Amino acid sequence: MEDKKYIHIISHTHWDREWYLPYEKHHVLLTKLMDRLLETLESNPDFKSYHLDGQTIILDDYLQIRPEMREKLQTFVREGRLHIGPWYILQDEFLTSSEANIRNLQYGMKDAALWGGVSKVGYFPDSFGNIGQAPQILSQAGINNAVFGRGVKPTGFNNTVSEAENYESPYSEMLWRSPDGSSVLGILFANWYCNGNEVPTDEKEAKKYWEQHIASLEKYAASPHMLMMNGCDHQPIQTDLPEAIRVAETLYPNIEFIHSNFNDYVGKLAASLPQNLKVIEGELRSQQTDGWGTLVNTASARVYIKQMNQLSQTLLEKVAETLSAFAYLQGGDYHHHLIEYAWKTLMQNHPHDSICGCSVDEVHREMVTRFEKSKHVAEMIIDESLESISEKINTASFKKWGEDALPFTVYNTTGWDRTGVVSITLDVKRDYFSAGVNKQELKGFPLGERTLVDDKGTEYHCKVEDLGISFGYDLPEEKFRQPYMARRVRLTFEAEKVPALGFTTYAWVSSSKHNDNSSLIINENEMENNYVNVKINENGSLTVTNKVNGRTFEDLCVYEDTGDIGNEYMYKQPNNEQALTTKDLIAKVNIIEDTPFQAAYEIVQEWEIPASASDLLDKEQKELVWFTGRKSERVEAKVPFTIKTVVTLAKNSKGIDVKTSFNNQAKDHRLRALFPTDIKTDVHHADSIFEIAKRTNEPSQEWTNPDHSQHQQAFVDVSNEVEGLTVANLGLNEYEIIRDGRNTIAVTLLRSVGELGDWGYFPTPEAQCLGEQTVSFCIYPHDGKDSATKAYKDAYQYQVPWSLKQTGLHDGELPPVHSFVQWESANLAFSSMKVSKQSGDVMMRWFNMADESDTLIVKTSETYKNTYESNVIEEKKKSLHVDGNKAIHVSVRNHEIVTLGFEKKLI
């Protein structure tokens, strides 16, 4: 290590768009900060540069109020004095989907490039834990470093390297490696991102300041190039920093103080690091700490926010983008501007203090509106795409059943063939207002004897509900709106083997139908199909048998309730409290659906739970008693807590679908669903960001938090070589593997708390989540290692809604059953299909779920100029050979994220 030392001081502010103040109040403060910043940059050439917190949305927010400042902003970005990007917003990595993390990077880098420069730093200053695939994502985007504040304990006892094996790294610098082998230089804010805050200009004060700070820097530094962050949360700019640096240079002539930026600092740091940096692997979730620092229970704060996010993300990335790509391949428009608007509106809900549910109530009220706005745009894109594709499908073959045949198409936008129960509302007859409406004729219009068929004539049993007459309207592009009244029916049936990334067309036709009296119901509390048997026990729990291997799981879906005297960040059970469960209740069980293709039971459990925590909790909150030291308990008084659970089994499903509803009138508590697995294993797997993360059931020795909750995206799985249980979810991001001798999966359904927490007293009564709640999950028993991948694929499909569209009888270039892309691989999961705005090429992405390499084979029905390997920011990397079968073969490393580009179709 060279003798000379360098201290890089980076001016910044960590800007939470919304948190302990609602967005618009922070917005006003941001405007003041930005005004002051531009004034400082303009008037003081010695104020070298400013890091704008790694998120380009700050510029958009500022220009909403100060549009006249655009040119000045652009000048400072191009001059390298204002450093922006690479993200659009600073997201929570674990609570936003894989594709949302990628869109955040794509839009951030695109916007930064338009402004004139991007800060090539993987900036995660305050993420509540860091995803294992971040190094691979950053590397693919051309970023060779990651800067983060949480997830790693930096050093051993007394900063001795000899103790380093007990911790991730003895230094603030380390190599961070993803499961695929990609690595970046990891830089931990060992002294947080405000370690260079408010540098004194007074010589006496400066001497004391620097003695302390230099010692802290050297304690963790592996290099003579050390980092000081001059700023903090919503911190005003230190306009006299150049003078403070001059004072420091006078005091320490052997140290070079540099008013720096991340691009320069990382370059100097990388060239001066020793060879013996520790390598840290995968997820950074504070595994080797006391377990409080990554604020994991934000995964269950305000569950309704997570549910809305899961729906909004899925509609955009798994439905709207995919259907728009299908339409684009058939000559339709791909509405980049609308998709970007929907994504950016959604991503305004993705900052860590927003999606984590750990802000004041006003913040989360506004989030609900943003979710709705994004969803509404996605729904418009979806409907237009469905219309565009459906009108090109040849449905003429259904005319053989008569001109009154009613065709419709079922679309599968997932990456695998799909079977499942779907519903569609059909207009049997329409009367437009312009031609006159005869309501009596519509009401009496004969439906006749009809059946459901595909284009081959195969009949499908369906449930028909006569909906009577309803109002509707068309919005033609060339004329005024066209209102009508329609006679409607709802058809429900099981669509079988709809091709991946494609569709199957059906029609409701005039025909005598064959009666099918088969049933999945065995008796008043038991149902089964060819794969599973489900018994509902007296207490409402489920006994599930995997008929393939005979393995039975007992006591599934018992509900557990405990007190919670923590806050939006962290769960804290009252001392010495025993959990309440539904195990000793007597449930009411009713059959509510019995068709040849689906059966369902409703289970009603009348329960009572404590009304709230005692008054002591309110006192402790107001007096800022840290949550781990609180003494409050739950009150004796009880409130009713009725749980209604609908358990559904479809004929060809390997999963048991569960929907749970309750009216929460209790405060200060947590509700979970329990799934004892009784599977012998020390590890489990959870869906994370482009990764099936392997995690230990037991925490490390350093972990003192009694709760060992963790993040999930689509599912959690406990399995070994011969048996397994996967529990999928819709927007339930928190689970725990309970150390009870049964390896019980516990999925959090609700957490009710009354304060934000953190640095002050911020009451949040709406975080109690009072009122009606509904949650959904699906249980997949499987045969262990060899069938776990199939369960994972089913769990991914469970996330994605079907798309259906009624159409007319017409010719078309597309066949009634079609797949736009066919692909094969044992271990890859399909992630997205979209169109690149830069190139107009169709982009498709997969990731390898397994710890072994694989081959991806892709065939398409289209003709392309070129196919190529790309990366997460959609750059061309390598052309691919198309063989005589119009297939491409791509070798994929273990856990690799692979993106392919298909250059514009030849017309």
Automatic annotation (TrEMBL):
Pfam families: Alpha-mann_mid (PF09261), Glyco_hydro38C2 (PF17677), Glyco_hydro_38 (PF18438), Glyco_hydro_38C (PF07748), Glyco_hydro_38N (PF01074). InterPro entries: Gal_mutarotase_sf_dom, GH38_beta-1, GH38_C, Glyco_hydro/deAcase_b/a-brl, Glyco_hydro_38_C, Glyco_hydro_38_cen, Glyco_hydro_38_cen_sf, Glyco_hydro_38_N. Keywords: Glycosidase, Hydrolase, Metal-binding. Transmembrane segments: none annotated. Signal peptide: none annotated. Residues 298-371 form the Glycoside hydrolase family 38 central domain. PANTHER family: ALPHA-MANNOSIDASE 2C1 (PTHR46017), MANNOSYLGLYCERATE HYDROLASE (PTHR46017:SF2). Belongs to the glycosyl hydrolase 38 family. This is Alpha-mannosidase.
